[in-house]
Amino acid sequence: MTNYSIQTISENYKMTAFGVTLEDYNDWAGNAAKTAAKKAEITENSKLAELLALADGQEYQINYNLGGKAWRGFGVMGEFDVEGAVVLDFLAGDYLVVPGTGADKDRLADEITGKVFGGLLQQVTDYKYVGPGNSTFVKAAEDGTFYGEMWLRAKKVEG
Questions:
Q1: Quick one: which of 19, 64, 67, 92 is 20 to 30 A from 25 by CA?
Q2: Buried residues in 30-61 as b, exposed as e (16+ CB within 10 A)
Q3: Is the pLDDT assigned to residue 1 strictly greater than 60?
Q4: Residue 19's pLDDT is what?
Q5: What are phi and psi of 147, to 5 degrees?
Q6: Gyration radius from the chain CA atoms
Q7: Cα gap 109→126, rounded to integer Å
Protein backbone atom coordinates (compact mmCIF):
# COMPACT_ATOMS: atom_id res chain seq x y z
CA MET A 1 0.00 0.00 0.00
CA THR A 2 1.18 3.52 -0.80
CA ASN A 3 2.25 5.64 2.13
CA TYR A 4 -0.09 8.38 3.23
CA SER A 5 -0.77 10.41 6.33
CA ILE A 6 -3.65 12.40 7.77
CA GLN A 7 -2.97 16.06 8.52
CA THR A 8 -5.47 18.44 10.12
CA ILE A 9 -5.90 21.97 8.76
CA SER A 10 -7.48 24.12 11.47
CA GLU A 11 -8.73 27.01 9.32
CA ASN A 12 -10.36 27.42 5.92
CA TYR A 13 -7.97 28.70 3.26
CA LYS A 14 -8.04 29.94 -0.31
CA MET A 15 -6.08 29.23 -3.45
CA THR A 16 -5.96 31.42 -6.56
CA ALA A 17 -5.56 29.72 -9.91
CA PHE A 18 -6.00 29.70 -13.67
CA GLY A 19 -7.65 26.63 -15.16
CA VAL A 20 -10.13 24.94 -17.44
CA THR A 21 -13.52 23.29 -17.03
CA LEU A 22 -13.51 19.62 -17.99
CA GLU A 23 -16.79 18.96 -19.79
CA ASP A 24 -16.35 15.17 -19.98
CA TYR A 25 -14.50 13.90 -16.94
CA ASN A 26 -13.77 10.56 -18.67
CA ASP A 27 -12.09 12.15 -21.73
CA TRP A 28 -8.57 11.63 -20.37
CA ALA A 29 -6.72 12.58 -23.56
CA GLY A 30 -8.88 15.62 -24.25
CA ASN A 31 -8.65 16.83 -20.66
CA ALA A 32 -4.87 16.39 -20.62
CA ALA A 33 -4.64 18.41 -23.85
CA LYS A 34 -6.89 21.20 -22.48
CA THR A 35 -4.90 21.34 -19.25
CA ALA A 36 -1.55 21.39 -21.07
CA ALA A 37 -2.79 24.16 -23.38
CA LYS A 38 -3.88 26.27 -20.38
CA LYS A 39 -0.53 25.72 -18.65
CA ALA A 40 1.32 26.76 -21.83
CA GLU A 41 -0.91 29.85 -22.20
CA ILE A 42 -0.44 31.11 -18.62
CA THR A 43 3.28 30.39 -18.78
CA GLU A 44 3.74 32.23 -22.10
CA ASN A 45 1.64 35.26 -21.11
CA SER A 46 3.39 35.42 -17.68
CA LYS A 47 0.10 35.19 -15.75
CA LEU A 48 1.38 32.21 -13.76
CA ALA A 49 4.64 34.05 -13.00
CA GLU A 50 2.60 37.06 -11.84
CA LEU A 51 0.60 34.87 -9.47
CA LEU A 52 3.71 33.09 -8.16
CA ALA A 53 5.35 36.46 -7.45
CA LEU A 54 2.35 37.56 -5.36
CA ALA A 55 2.46 34.37 -3.28
CA ASP A 56 5.34 32.34 -1.85
CA GLY A 57 6.51 31.08 -5.25
CA GLN A 58 5.18 27.53 -4.81
CA GLU A 59 3.01 26.35 -7.71
CA TYR A 60 0.13 23.91 -7.18
CA GLN A 61 -1.81 21.74 -9.59
CA ILE A 62 -5.43 21.95 -8.46
CA ASN A 63 -8.48 19.78 -9.16
CA TYR A 64 -11.78 21.25 -8.01
CA ASN A 65 -15.55 20.92 -8.33
CA LEU A 66 -16.44 24.36 -9.65
CA GLY A 67 -20.13 25.00 -10.24
CA GLY A 68 -20.83 21.27 -10.35
CA LYS A 69 -18.22 20.62 -13.05
CA ALA A 70 -14.73 19.21 -12.88
CA TRP A 71 -12.08 21.91 -13.11
CA ARG A 72 -8.29 21.67 -13.27
CA GLY A 73 -5.75 24.43 -13.00
CA PHE A 74 -2.50 25.83 -11.71
CA GLY A 75 -2.15 28.34 -8.93
CA VAL A 76 -0.93 29.37 -5.50
CA MET A 77 -1.92 29.45 -1.85
CA GLY A 78 -3.79 32.59 -0.87
CA GLU A 79 -6.35 34.96 -2.30
CA PHE A 80 -5.11 37.34 -5.00
CA ASP A 81 -6.89 39.62 -7.45
CA VAL A 82 -5.42 38.71 -10.83
CA GLU A 83 -7.39 39.11 -14.06
CA GLY A 84 -8.71 35.77 -15.32
CA ALA A 85 -7.89 33.86 -12.13
CA VAL A 86 -10.42 32.22 -9.82
CA VAL A 87 -10.28 32.07 -6.04
CA LEU A 88 -11.10 28.63 -4.66
CA ASP A 89 -12.23 27.84 -1.12
CA PHE A 90 -10.63 24.95 0.72
CA LEU A 91 -12.19 23.91 4.00
CA ALA A 92 -10.63 23.19 7.37
CA GLY A 93 -10.55 19.55 8.41
CA ASP A 94 -8.60 16.38 7.94
CA TYR A 95 -6.57 15.96 4.76
CA LEU A 96 -5.24 12.77 3.25
CA VAL A 97 -1.64 13.58 2.26
CA VAL A 98 0.01 11.37 -0.35
CA PRO A 99 3.72 11.88 -1.05
CA GLY A 100 5.68 10.96 -4.12
CA THR A 101 9.15 11.30 -5.59
CA GLY A 102 10.44 11.27 -9.14
CA ALA A 103 13.06 12.46 -11.58
CA ASP A 104 10.70 14.51 -13.79
CA LYS A 105 9.30 17.66 -12.19
CA ASP A 106 6.71 18.16 -14.92
CA ARG A 107 5.27 14.64 -14.58
CA LEU A 108 5.35 14.08 -10.81
CA ALA A 109 2.05 15.83 -9.96
CA ASP A 110 0.24 13.74 -12.59
CA GLU A 111 1.94 10.57 -11.35
CA ILE A 112 0.80 11.22 -7.77
CA THR A 113 -2.72 12.06 -9.00
CA GLY A 114 -2.81 8.82 -10.98
CA LYS A 115 -1.66 6.83 -7.96
CA VAL A 116 -4.35 8.40 -5.74
CA PHE A 117 -7.30 8.07 -8.11
CA GLY A 118 -6.02 4.88 -9.74
CA GLY A 119 -6.38 2.79 -6.59
CA LEU A 120 -5.12 4.38 -3.38
CA LEU A 121 -8.48 5.91 -2.45
CA GLN A 122 -10.06 2.45 -2.64
CA GLN A 123 -7.37 1.08 -0.30
CA VAL A 124 -7.94 3.74 2.36
CA THR A 125 -10.85 2.41 4.38
CA ASP A 126 -10.77 4.63 7.48
CA TYR A 127 -11.16 7.95 5.59
CA LYS A 128 -13.31 9.04 2.64
CA TYR A 129 -12.39 11.80 0.16
CA VAL A 130 -15.00 14.57 0.44
CA GLY A 131 -13.57 17.43 -1.64
CA PRO A 132 -14.51 19.89 -3.04
CA GLY A 133 -10.98 19.81 -4.39
CA ASN A 134 -7.40 18.73 -4.00
CA SER A 135 -4.01 20.19 -4.69
CA THR A 136 -0.56 18.86 -5.49
CA PHE A 137 2.79 20.60 -5.22
CA VAL A 138 6.21 19.53 -6.48
CA LYS A 139 9.56 20.92 -5.35
CA ALA A 140 13.20 20.07 -5.88
CA ALA A 141 14.82 17.66 -3.41
CA GLU A 142 18.42 18.03 -2.28
CA ASP A 143 19.54 14.98 -4.28
CA GLY A 144 18.47 16.43 -7.64
CA THR A 145 15.16 14.54 -7.79
CA PHE A 146 11.74 15.97 -6.98
CA TYR A 147 9.32 15.56 -4.08
CA GLY A 148 5.59 16.20 -4.18
CA GLU A 149 2.44 15.81 -2.13
CA MET A 150 -1.25 15.68 -2.95
CA TRP A 151 -3.62 17.00 -0.27
CA LEU A 152 -7.26 15.82 -0.35
CA ARG A 153 -9.88 16.77 2.24
CA ALA A 154 -11.16 13.60 3.85
CA LYS A 155 -13.62 12.61 6.55
CA LYS A 156 -13.14 9.80 9.05
CA VAL A 157 -15.46 6.89 8.35
CA GLU A 158 -17.71 6.24 11.33
CA GLY A 159 -18.25 2.73 12.45
A1: 92
A2: ebeebbeebbeebeeeebbeebbebbeeebbb
A3: no
A4: 97
A5: -125, 140
A6: 15
A7: 24
pLDDT tens, position by position, 40-95: 999 999 999 999 999 999 999 999 999 899 999 999 999 999 999 999 999 999 99
pLDDT greater than 70 at residue 2: no
Rounded distance between C-alpha atoms, residue 9 and residue 95, angstroms: 7
Helix axes 47-54, 28-44, angle to 10 degrees: 70
Report how far residue 61's alpha carbon sits from residue 73's, in angstroms, rounded to the nearest whole number: 6
**Closest to 127 in 3D by CA, of 154, 151, 148:** 154
Query: Is the preceding peptide bond at 99 cis, omega within 30 degrees of 0?
Result: no
pLDDT at residue 106 above 90? no
E strand spans, 35-143: 60-66, 69-77, 86-90, 93-102, 127-140
Q: Rounded CA gap, 7 and 10, in Å?
A: 10
CA distances from 84 to 43, 117, 125, 130 (A): 14, 29, 39, 27
